[in-house]
Amino acid sequence: MKIIMSTYDVEGVKQSLLEKVAGSDSPRDVLKAPEIRELYGVIGSLPAEERGAFGKQVNEVKLAVEAAIEARENELESADVVAIDVTAPWDVNSAQPALLPTEQGTQHPLTTELENVVDIFTRMGFEAVESRQIDDDHHMFGALNFPEDHPARDGYDTFRTEEGFIPPAHTSTMQHRILKDGKAKLEAGGQIAAISYGRVFRNEDVDATHEHTFYQCEGVFVSEDATLGQMLGTLRSFFETYYGQELRVKTQPAYFPFVEPGLEFAIEKPAAIGGKPGEWLEMLGCGMIHPNVLKDAGIDPTKYRGFAWGGGVERLVMLKYGIEDLRHFESGKLAFLRKFAS
Ligand code: DAH
């Protein structure tokens, strides 16, 4: 039989294909429907002068079917996600949407390592307080002997809210509180010995060694006769416990407005983790607490002396595990996190 183009109901075939797509759970299968094969077959059986125009119509059918398939697939995909009414009051008895099975979750490596750090200092007699994540100019700078408009403030790339609050750029913001809280104990013949640890923020360009969000740990010790030697012993003892081996340490002068003298404390990278002799790694800043910082907290600097230190936690952990890029920690990448799953 010779088919005449005008007698073939292309529009009817298209409608029936679109209906199939709309009702299908696997709409892509419709592309294999016999009607489609038939349409292509028809092209070949037409007289040459009709083929071009008919081919164009068949192509339009195919495009319409493909667009419908895509729309149907999107519809099916979003039907899988249970819609949550975020305005509804929370129902204690409601089933939670299933995310990842909780039994497969593990603690973030930084949390584990921070617990480790806190544990070491606690055993050395330090109290541990978590640092604030929102603070003010006085705790960030003023109470730490940064003069108004002093260029040292610029070194901290500090974020500020419109209201003038500060997401702290260092855990030193806790020093003033630790000193004020410990004053009574000090005056009763005791000592102040505390660490503060937590998340800090800096408005920096992010690369393998800089993050806008990271963790620090800070230490404060005050007594009638605290010495720099005690500080170096405390720090050395901490690092040797953390890395589980003896270490060579050294210091070099550095400027921080809240300590005098101020130092940078470095350890020699252990051979066990690929270090070469003379390969020094700067781990933290430290020094004897500046008299103005003690005075500001109501502590008499002629009677009491103290030392303080502060440094990044990620750096400690990176060295321990040979992690090459700081950005892994905040990335949320499962491949990275799973390396630490126990
Ligand atoms: N807060 C300093 C920083 O983030 C680190 C620091 C240096 C802390 C010396 C101290 C200190 O307590 O004494 O760069």
Would you mind describing this structure in some detail?
A hairpin with a 5-residue loop joins β4 (249-253) and β5 (259-268). This protein folds into 2 domains: 5-80, no CATH class; 108-338, Bira Bifunctional Protein, Domain 2 (BirA Bifunctional Protein, domain 2). It has helices at 10-22, 34-45, 48-80, 109-123, 137-140, 175-187, 228-243, 291-296, 313-321, 328-331, 334-338, and strands at residues 127-130, 192-201, 213-223, 249-253, 259-268, 280-289, 305-312. The protein has a 7-stranded mixed β-sheet with strand order 1-2-3-7-6-5-4. 38% of the residues lie in helices and 17% in strands. α1 (10-22) runs parallel beside α3 (48-80) and α2 runs antiparallel to α3. It has 11 helices and 7 strands. It is α+β, with helices and mostly antiparallel strands and 342 residues long. 3,4-dihydroxyphenylalanine binds at residues 170, 172, 218, 256, 259, 262, 285-287, 308-310.
Q: What order do the helices and strands follow?
A: HHHHEHHEEHEEEHEHHH
Structural class: alpha+beta
Largest sheet: spatial strand order: 1-2-3-7-6-5-4
Distance between the termini: 74 Å
Percent helix: 25-40%
Domain module count: 2
Helix segment tally: 11
Model regions low in confidence, pLDDT < 50 over at least 5 residues:
none
- Estimate the mean pLDDT confidence: 91
Q: Could you tell me the strand content as a percent range?
A: 15-25%
CATH superfamily of the largest domain: Bira Bifunctional Protein, Domain 2
Q: For this structure, what is the CATH class of the largest domain?
A: Alpha Beta
CATH topology of the largest domain: BirA Bifunctional Protein, domain 2
